[in-house]
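go over this record:
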Amino acid sequence: MAIPATETILSILRAGALNHGDAYALRYVDPAELVFDETAAPHAITYRQLLGRVTALANAFRALSGEDRPVVSLLIPSTIDGVVALLAAEVAGRANPINHYLPPHEIRDIMRSTGASLAVAFGAPGTPPVWETLTAAAEGLDLRALIATDCGRAPEGAYSLGEMVAQYPVDELSGTEPQATDGAALFQTTGTTGRPKVVPLTHRNLLAAAGGLADMWRMDATTRIVNALPLFHVAGANLLLLAPLSAGAEVQLYSGAGLRNPQTLAHHWELVERSRPSIIGGIPSSLVALLEVPLNGADISSVRFCATGGAPMPAVSAEQFERQFGLRVHAIYGMTECAGLIAAAPTDIAPDYATTGHIAGETELQLRKLGDGWPELTDETGIICVRGPQVFSGYFSEQEPTLLPGGWLATGDVGNIGPRGEVTVSGRSKDIIIRSGNNIDPAVIEAATSRHPSVASCAAVAMPDRYAGEVPALFVTLRQGCDLTVDQIFDHLRATLAEPHARPAHIRVIDALPLTRVGKVSRVDLRRQAAEHAIRLAVPTLDGGATLLIDENGTLTVSIDPSQADAVAAIRALGLNVSNPDRAER
């Protein structure tokens, strides 16, 4: 049953306290302790306790800021205090979760752009040093207060979350009650290309997506779900948090860093045996890493299925995960601008690993052709466009309209929709490789490459070429203990890729694919590496002083001394822009 359009995050928490008051809402499982005591539960809070802490902290946020709806920036790992701070910020005003792995100057820019008046950060020692990052980022900003989580005593000049919860009323929210149409969160986009934008989401946006996933995955009060995604990611902050909380389920947090924590990864199956979740999960790169972690006899019979999202899961890897652990992999397809949900693999049928699942909740999808008028397509592959109550209204502080006429959002994903609502995403429109006029979807190359048993992961990107414009470049990582040469990969693709144009012109075996800060494959880095290889081939005698730049739209430019005339001509012949380093922005 969908969450009614009038509900807010506060009303959901109140309903949880009323209907499931003594049941555990949040449980923190520390891999360093490997302790799970069903009776004592030292790292867990009930629904009633959660509502009280969130209400008290929301009151503190309003009092400290002097505002009825403050913007609260949050640098919070996945701890119980972190979740309380996130929910309290959404109840009091607008939460602005920020990736705490970013450098201070980027965090400062985000806080300034969102107009944050308060900032919350992890106050205990750790790696990365989150509190030190916040204090550096806060320099020069007009913040009313800094609040530290997960510490008994606040750093000098700051407040501790525990002190605020103890000091302010837990029974009633001061000031105005949030409404469904009010803004609740300001997220940053986490794509693999371009400069992040700020995405405002309302209570209605967040709960429409959360309710849609809770329905598709049949969450209820018996559900125990592991939230292994960071709280600065919309899936970790919404889908894997508010969806289960709206159903009375228990949310389990495996360390503050989830599967980024080497201990969590190494002891994952032992943690599962002890905490008895019914749903586990992680981003695709984490699940691929789990393939190298043996069960060692761990009892994982409590688990119904494994969830994934944030990036496409290669079908071969999902099939191997199911064979190896006996767990089906159910994918989520979404984006920040849709509160994380467009489609998901339902639990009442076996997942089709060639698709990303079925249209979720009240979502509407269309396929459009990129260009003037965005004409709708029927039986063809096209740009996936989405409309629904979870879709935002436009980027924060931007004047230009974001949505197409009729409220449709162009996702930028290329795919198609099956007769029963199955959604297949074949790639990003920006990632398409155009070789001599032929459009090549990188996913086709990656799927064929992944079928080799020695391949752990791979990614194909466009490499500049003098004659074809672009050619595919393929980057491959191997499974532990496997040897595979570039020639063997070429032979494998000659046998599995029928279209000659799709066969890579360049293959490189590397130790690990570069990742963005949220664990997606960084195609920007790979495109840079491919372009550097093309330049070396075109200008083998290139002198020093050439720098490859990528702008916010993903456009490659080579900054080079114009006196190197032959090199400049060869680089321009590759289709790359050339700039003078003395005039380029630094």
About this structure: The domain at 9-417 is CATH 3.40.50.12780 (Rossmann fold). The longest strand covers residues 455-465. The CA atoms of residues 315 and 397 lie 39 Å apart. DSSP finds 17 helices and 29 strands in the chain.
